[in-house]
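Bumping my old thread because nobody answered last time. Still need a sequence for this structure:
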């Protein structure tokens, strides 16, 4: 596998829909944390399968529908979660 991108924090694709954030993509990016930008919807986002995929890979999950704004800040070496309420 050719790796084009590595990231500590991943913003999941399309609100965590079933067609986004594939196992191959997660293996390539290898994030520690994933942010799902989602609100109340009739589409079932985020997908239970995507959530299970993230949890199975021990990737921390943060969701805007449960936590409000999710903000991370970096100095280029370390990450810090910014509390926003």
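Sorry it took so long. Here it is:
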């Amino acid at each position: 596998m050719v790796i084009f991108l590595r990231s500590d924090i991943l913003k999941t694709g399309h609100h965590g829909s079933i067609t986004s954030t594939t196992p191959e993509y997660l293996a390539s990016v290898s994030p520690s944390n994933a942010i799902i930008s989602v609100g109340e919807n009739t589409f079932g986002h985020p997908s239970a399968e995507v959530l299970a995929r993230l949890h199975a890979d021990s990737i921390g999950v943060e969701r805007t529908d449960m936590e409000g704004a999710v903000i991370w800040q970096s100095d280029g070496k370390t990450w810090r979660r910014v509390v926003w309420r």
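Residues 9-82 form one domain. Let me know if any region looks off to you.
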